[in-house]
Amino acid sequence: MKKEKILFWSATTLIALFEGLMPILTFNTDMAKDGIRHLGYPDYFGTALVVFKVLGALALIIPMVPKRIKEWAYAGFAFDFIFAMISHVAVDGITGETFMPLIAMAILAVSYVYYHKLSESA
């Protein structure tokens, strides 16, 4: 049980940091705005994406959030990572940046699997 908790909280904390905290700190930088524009998205899309990422990260790390909301947060992050990969491939072809969303997806999968393992044993 202890191993499951460590794996869950490690993966979930990484997702929360990279998808919740980092966007808040960087979304208004020129680099972030240029990245959104480079992929062909309007500026407001980046702002909306940050809002939903922060809400999703909060949903994953706050224990009293209902399970259904957590499931939506996991699904939202999965869609985000899938479409980020597709966007990078469509615009730049296969590069190093193409695989970063897949790495994040693997971390999300660990969080999701261990979330369910801990939920079933509770």
Please give a structural write-up.
With 122 residues, the protein is an all-alpha fold. It has helices spanning 2-26, 30-38, 43-61, 67-92, 96-121. The longest helix is centred in the middle third of the chain and has 26 residues, at 67-92. The mean pLDDT is 93.
Please supply descriptive tags for the structure shown above.
122 residues, mainly alpha, globular
Q: Structural class of the helix and strand makeup?
A: mainly alpha
Return the domain count. Answer: 1
Q: How do the helices and strands follow one another from N- to C-terminus?
A: HHHHH
* Count, helices: 5
List the helices and strands and how they pair.
Elements: H1 2-26, H2 30-38, H3 43-61, H4 67-92, H5 96-121
What is the gist of this entry?
By secondary structure, this protein is mainly α. Helices cover 86% and strands 0% of the residues. α1 (2-26) runs antiparallel to α3, α1 (2-26) crosses α5 (96-121) and α3 (43-61) packs antiparallel against α4 (67-92).
